[in-house]
């Protein structure tokens, strides 16, 4: 532990507080359904919703190839914790995505550009963007090929560390 690391008890308190905020957001976003990775895996044919590769249920966390549930519209963005808003993914792909969602419409891109324009350091960058360019870049960033490459690197690092 470095001097910059908080003591373990503080980290635990911070994690508990973060989990509590997430549960509160989930409740305020609408319906909550109970489901399992096994159930969603069966529904999705054991195919990752991000990299489109097969997901093997035999892998267990923390292996990046292990099954994981991904919220399509993130909880932080107002998504619900329901079957119609989740998909099966590899844990590594889900972790790579984090809470980033691909831009799909000009309206979404313009909304994101408006946020960037309000940040003085990013204003010159945002002024040079078009909604179409933002959508194209976002789609490339969220491509199955990119997720497959990131997963392969994550698996290689995981195996190299001998976990």
What does this protein structure show overall?
By secondary structure, the protein is mainly α. 50% of the residues lie in helices and 6% in strands. The protein contains 7 helices and 2 strands. Strands 1-2 form a two-stranded antiparallel ribbon. Helix 4 crosses helix 6. The two termini are 21 Å apart. The mean pLDDT is 89.
Write the layout of secondary structure elements.
Elements: H1 8-29, H2 37-43, E1 67-71, E2 86-90, H3 91-97, H4 106-117, H5 123-127, H6 131-141, H7 144-160
Antiparallel strand pairs: 1-2
Helix pairs in contact: 3-7, 4-6
The description of the largest β-sheet is: 2 strands, antiparallel
Order of helices and strands: HHEEHHHHH
Percent range for β-strand residues: 5-15%
**Helix content range:** 40-55%
User: Low-confidence spans: pLDDT under 50, at least 5 residues?
Assistant: none
Task: Kindly list the characteristics that best describe this protein.
163 residues, mainly alpha, two-stranded antiparallel ribbon, 7 helices, 2 strands
Brief overview:
The chain has 163 residues and is mostly helical. The protein has seven helices and two strands.
